[in-house]
Specification:
The structure holds two protein chains of two kinds. By secondary structure, chain A is of the alpha/beta class. Helices cover about 40% and strands about 10% of the residues of chain A. Chain A has three domains: about 20-230, NADH-ubiquinone oxidoreductase 51kDa subunit (Rossmann fold), CATH 3.40.50.11540; about 245-325, Ubiquitin-like (UB roll) (Roll); about 330-425, de novo design (two linked rop proteins) (Up-down Bundle), CATH 1.20.1440. Chain A has 17 helices and eleven strands. The chains are: A alpha/beta, B alpha/beta. The complex binds flavin mononucleotide (FMN), iron/sulfur cluster (3 copies) and FE2/S2 (inorganic) cluster. Flavin mononucleotide (FMN) binds near residues 59, 175 and 392 of chain A.
Chain lengths: ~450, ~725
């Protein structure tokens, strides 16, 4: 089993969220090492590590860091995307809740490498406790001189860190919408290259801006402490290091598992343990990615290329397991309701299309399915996918296309018989645990 | 550039660049400016790309939302070995925001693009009420048009549509049909990019998203009418025009708005003899395509019931309708008897032709120089304030030139009310060209939009202390060696200015520093025009302009539609047409009224001047009208001034006559007759001409005849013919000094 706790190394240590404990276990060594290096050397370290963005898209992190201009008068902003809205994903929550200093340190390292003026941690509004922990960690870091003026005695290394709470919109995790929201605007996405400059040139307040996910910054901390080459030893050729997978659904031990990239998907399933019936399907990367039918899972490894080759995506690592009591059509109805609700409304295909999709699925699952509905669903999806203004439209279309591809007969069943093929489609049993994050550990 | 804007959406228009790039659209090779939006390049190539949300005058920030303009794009990609190949971008791109770049290849007619357009239109229509038969926009609706040419014939939507009550009362003049909205963000962008009040925004999200004001308050703007024309569907509707007509039943006549001196180009849309609505007409030099609400909604008087349709005579305190023969007889009799004791006031609301005929009647036939078109405070020689020193009278700059200013100083003006279109240019200079705006006023109104909303600096001074403020600024310029200062500020100190004006020393200093940084335009408003020490204030303005090297950038625009033209035409006591000095000058407006009040005037002819309503000294005007002087008024309706007259002559509005107006920047523009309300209504020039003929003068038979005389006799108007004015008008220039 390829559980490799790099970021989670100290997850179970009591008091690790406090500065003294964190420091005793090697905390802020990554930063201390970073500042002995040239800024470019820090970026090269990230390059060597092969780290790719953990927010979903898997974009090489060093390219972004390297893209921040080195000679402008403008302030440079660093943003941590802690909006974690992707259904089934809760890794950033645990990282912030238990290992807040890992993130703070990572953002200071990035601030050093990218000449940062200030960093903003944009935290999902519901994450009240994680935000407390982060705020506490920031306070402690200021006291220790890891934040503020002349950090670690380095003349001119001034860097501040702020927490900004989201207001309950999935779309605000999309990086350009996040920037709008951070600036106090409506949470709508902004024009992207080639229609507008890249965020690394003109992001928030028209200044160079770096946006990375929580896990990305945390990994940077590990990399600077242990070396990029060390990180690159793990994983596959193009997916290096580890990925935290948030496992949920019909699973005995739902929890965040940090696995080495390239770990066979079935191995993770074994560790988690499917409950309540036979395994039916898995969504490996959050609700936005296509669902995978059980008998195809043996070919999938948990890394970017393997998932892509199988027609799905590693995404944010929101790994959802479904046993054979699951009604896929109902699942898709609920999924489409989510996207309908979260569509920001800016662009035509997503605004109108997501509601239409939901209405059709709602009609089918209320016994009003009609011949041609499946083709219509696919058509609508194809009219959204790639045509919308931002990725949310695509994310709304992919799961439905994926589900129809994998479970077409269930849609046909609903349309023909006006009832579920699963019989009594019970709500998945919730594991009886008080706080899964605190009580469950990977096997 | 200050960042006190309400929001931070990208302010970017098509960039003004000179570098050209080679691109290909549907096989047509062409050169376009680098960075131009592809949708504009396609126009050059004659390729039609349908769109809804795109608008060349609105910023790109919130655009690209309708997805109607998607095209396939192939961009050159350089391989590591240096070879360049074309690669198709994986997703279709919105051509309305895609900047043209070297080697780009655009395809707008592929099967995929055709399908994308069908898809977008299907989406837009699934929740659309399709109530075209009763929709004001039907027949001129971009949604209808695009649906016909690019949409599918049928819809596959069978679910319930989104419903809202009709006619949500959004603004005084605008109602909102939320069902018809396609969420293109044109109206919201208008309020942020153009009018500057940012009142409209989107509420809620997803398919529930709707346009509104943030707290469901009324949309209170001075430019709200523009969103009706901008809206690509019938969602934003004119309250007064709603359900009035089908567009194809309307006739449209080119015209110029009669409401202020900015001279917006408009279209009069009418049925039979009744005006239905006013729409903006493009003139890049003047209004671009906008109108203000005064202009758009303020012309209902033209076809109102209140219009005078016959001459009215007051006999024993009672009004009596009489016919023209009788009216002219009475008037001719009075004028003959007066034997030169006649005077005329007015002309600012009349055409150049009316004015020329007016002064010609007085000077040539009635042998009186007692005429004046002015009703503002300063009535001294028009040459004194600016001309003698700088060689121009009112506006040193063209309206469009304001865009090129580094700094704009607005002084003593509620600019948005007095000069709405100049206000929009100032706003554009700020929003899109990076100009810094300084506003100095004696009182700050609550309503938005106003210059103060985006001014970098606002100086609120005690009423009447403009000169002190200006001298204070000059003394800072001098003390800080920012400019060499001569004239009025000699010996003046900052402390004194602070004490007199009540403006803080820091604010005056900041203003001075901002003004010393480059091209500065000064726009002075009503408070200056009506200032009791007009000359002193203008002197100080001149000193400031001179000190900062901006002597040609002073602007004292008039306020009425033809304030400028009336002066050009010599409706002044001391100047003949073309500002030719007169040997024995006559009386000005105040002196004429005084003479009447003193019983020293036999006949007073008021041509469309609202003396009681507008003249600074109302008591004097009342006394004049109460005297024995026979007062004749040319008017459209029974205004307060007309009520006090002895004879009222029904005059034609701008919609019922041909002619020219000269706007505040000296642009001579043509108006065209749209319709007749009644054959008993005459244009002013015709009334003057008929009187002239009866008193032995030569009559005119058309406005064109008069224009011919004008261009022959007024040097600045030399060569102006109806034809030469074209669609944009002609701005006359002072001869180079
Ligand atoms: C609709 C939508 C929602 C997203 N939500 C999140 C999110 O909650 N957290 C996140 O880290 N990235 C999210 N992303 C991805 C971000 O846009 C962006 O790619 C990421 O923050 C970049 O960081 P990384 O390079 O470290 O992955 C979302 C993207 C889309 C299209
Ligand atoms: S796809 Fe369009 S409507 Fe959906 S969230 Fe993005 S911009 Fe908003
Ligand atoms: S907006 Fe256009 S498409 Fe809609 S009802 Fe009116 S005319 Fe018809
Ligand atoms: S009201 Fe009209 S202009 Fe405004 S968003 Fe809707 S369709 Fe566009
Ligand atoms: S016109 Fe380009 S997206 Fe609307």
């Amino acid at each position: 089993m390829a559980i490799r706790n790099l970021l989670f190394e100290h997850r179970e240590i009591a008091g690790i969220e406090e500065m003294d404990v964190y420091e005793k276990l090697g905390g802020y060594e990554g930063l201390r090492r970073a500042v002995t290096l040239e800024r470019q050397a820090v970026i090269d370290e990230i390059k060597t590590s092969g780290l790719r963005g953990r927010g979903g898209a898997g974009f090489p992190t060093w390219i972004k860091w390297n893209g921040i201009p080195k000679n402008t008068d403008k302030p440079h902003y660093l943003i941590c995307n802690a909006d974690e809205g992707e259904t089934g994903t809760y890794k950033d929550r645990e990282l912030m809740l238990k290992l807040p200093h890992l993130l703070v340190e990572g953002m200071v390292i990035a601030g050093y490498a990218c000449l940062g003026t200030a960093g903003y941690i944009y935290i999902r509004g519901e994450y009240v406790e994680p935000a407390w922990q982060i705020r506490k960690a920031i306070d402690q870091a200021y006291k220790k001189g890891y934040l503020g003026k002349n950090i670690l005695g380095i003349e001119g290394f001034n860097y501040d860190l702020y927490v900004h709470m989201g207001a309950g919109s999935y779309e605000c995790g999309e990086e350009s919408a996040l920037m709008s929201s951070l600036m106090g605007e409506r949470g709508n996405p902004r024009l992207k290259a080639p229609h507008a400059p890249l965020p690394v040139h003109e992001g928030v307040w028209k200044s160079p801006t770096l946006v990375n996910n929580v896990e990305t910054y945390c990994a940077a901390t590990w990399i600077l402490k242990n070396g990029g080459a060390e990180y690159a030893k793990l994983g596959t050729e193009r997916s290096k290091g580890t990925k935290i997978i948030s496992v949920s659904g019909h699973i005995a031990k739902p929890a965040n598992y940090e696995v080495e990239m390239g770990t066979p998907l079935l191995e993770l399933l074994k560790a988690g343990g499917v409950t309540g019936g036979k395994l039916k399907a898995v969504i490996p990367g959050g609700s936005s990615v296509p669902i995978m039918i059980a008998d195809k899972l043996d070919k999938i490894n948990l890394d970017y290329e393997s998932c892509a080759a199988s027609g799905t995506m590693l995404g944010s690592g929101g790994f959802m397991v479904f046993n054979d009591t699951t009604d896929i059509v109902l699942l898709m109805k609920r999924t489409s309701e989510f996207y309908m609700h979260e569509s920001c409304g800016k662009c035509t295909p997503c605004r109108e299309g997501t509601r239409w999709l939901f209405k059709i699925l709602d009609r089918i699952t209320s016994g009003g399915g009609r011949e041609g509905d499946i083709e219509l669903l696919l058509d609508i999806c194809s009219q959204i996918d790639g045509r919308s203004y931002c990725g949310l439209g695509d994310a709304a279309a992919w799961p439905i296309v994926g589900a129809i591809k994998a479970f077409r007969e269930e849609f046909e069943y609903w349309i023909e018989h006006k009832c579920s093929p699963i019989g009594d489609h019970a709500v998945p049993p919730t594991p009886v645990v008080v706080n899964p994050l605190l009580t469950l550990t990977p096997a | 550039m200050p960042d006190n804007r309400l929001t931070q959406t990208e302010a970017s228009l098509n960039p003004a660049v000179t570098q050209m790039v080679n691109i290909k659209i549907d096989g047509i090779e062409l050169q376009v400016p680098k960075g131009e939006n592809i949708i504009e390049s396609a126009k050059r190539a004659g390729v039609d790309i349908p769109y809804f949300c795109y608008h060349p005058r609105l910023s790109k920030g919130d655009a690209a939302n309708c997805r109607m303009c998607l095209v396939d794009v192939f961009a050159p990609r350089r391989a590591p070995d240096g070879t360049v190949s074309l690669a198709k971008m994986p997703k279709p791109q919105a051509s309305c925001t895609l900047p043209a770049d070297e080697g780009m290849v655009i395809v707008t007619d592929s099967e995929a693009v055709v399908r994308d357009r069908k898809g977008v239109l299907e989406f837009l229509l699934i929740n659309h009420p399709l109530d075209c038969p009763i929709c004001d926009r039907g027949g001129e609706c971009p949604l209808q048009n695009n649906a016909i040419f690019y949409g599918a014939a049928t819809s596959r939507y069978t679910e319930e549509k989104r419903h809202f009550p009709k006619a949500y009362p959004l603004a005084e003049n605008v109602v909102f049909d939320r069902e018809r909205c396609i969420h293109c963000a044109r109206c919201t962008r208008f309020t942020e990019d153009i009018s500057g009040d940012a009142q409209l925004g989107f509420l809620k999200r997803g398919a529930d998203m709707e346009v509104g004001t943030f707290e469901h308050t009324a949309y209170k703007s001075k430019f709200s009418g523009n969103v009706i024309e901008l809206c690509p569907v019938g969602a934003l509707l004119s309250r007064s025009y709603r359900f009035k007509a089908r567009p194809w039943d309307l006739h449209s006549q080119r015209s110029v708005c009669s409401k202020c001196s900015n001279g917006c180009n408009i279209k009069i849309d009418y049925r039979l003899d009744s005006l239905q609505r006013i729409n903006g007409r493009i003139n890049e030099a003047v209004n671009e395509e906008w109108t203000c609400d005064k202009g758009k909604f303020g012309h209902s008087y033209v076809s109102s019931e209140a219009r005078l349709k016959t001459p009215m005579l007051k006999a024993d305190g009672e009004w009596k309708a009489i016919d023209w023969t009788e009216a002219l007889q009475i008037l001719v009799g009075k004028l003959r008897d007066a034997d030169g004791s006649v005077a005329g006031i007015g002309g600012q609301r009349c055409t150049n032709e009316d004015n020329f005929a007016f002064q010609k009647l007085f000077r040539g036939v009635l042998k009186s120089n007692d005429i004046d078109s002015r009703v503002e405070g300063y009535l001294g020689s028009v040459n004194k304030p600016l001309y003698e020193r700088f060689g121009y009278h009112a506006m040193g700059n063209a309206i469009a030139e304001l865009e090129d200013m580094k700094t704009i100083f607005v002084l003593g003006s509620q600019l948005v009310d007095e000069q709405p279109i100049i206000y929009l240019r100032v706003r554009k200079a700020y929003r899109f060209k990076g100009a810094t705006v300084i506003n100095a006023v004696s009182s700050v109104p609550e309503d938005s939009p106003k210059v103060g909303d985006f001014a970098q600096l606002e100086l609120v001074y005690k009423p009447g202390t403009e000169a002190a403020l200006l001298k204070g600024i000059l003394s800072v310029l001098s003390a800080e060696k920012l400019a060499s200062v001569n004239g009025s500020a000699k010996g003046y100190t900052l402390e004194k200015a602070v004490e007199e004006t009540g403006v803080s020393a820091e604010a005056i200093q900041q203003a001075a520093r901002l003004m010393a940084t480059g091209k500065l335009a000064i726009i002075a408003g009503r408070e200056i025009a009506n200032h009791t020490n007009h000359l002193e204030v203008v002197q100080a303005i001149g000193d400031l302009a001179e000190a900062t090297g901006n002597a040609q950038n002073i602007n004292l625009p008039g306020e009425d539609v033809n304030s400028q033209g009336a002066a050009d035409m010599g409706v002044l006591p001391d100047f003949a047409p073309g500002y030719a000095p007169i040997e024995n000058p006559g009386k000005n407006t105040a002196q004429i009224l005084q003479a009447a009040a003193d019983g020293n005037l036999k006949v007073l002819w008021v041509a469309g001047a609202k003396l009681l309503e507008k003249f600074a000294n109302r008591e004097l005007a009342q006394a004049a009208f109460a005297s024995d002087t026979f007062v004749v008024v040319n008017e459209l309706t029974m205004t307060e001034t007309a009520q006090t007259a002895d004879l009222v002559l029904p005059a034609a509005s701008f919609a019922e006559k041909d002619g020219t107006f000269t706007n505040c920047e000296r642009r001579v523009q043509r108006i065209y007759k749209a319709f007749d309300i009644s054959l008993e209504i005459k244009p002013d020039w015709l009334i003057f001409s008929e009187i002239a003929a009866r008193l032995g003068g030569t009559p005119y038979f058309s406005a064109r005849d008069i224009l011919r005389d004008i261009s022959a006799q007024v040097p600045a108007y030399e060569g102006i013919t109806p034809k030469s004015l074209g669609d944009e008008g002609v701005r006359w220039e002072y001869p180079a000094k």
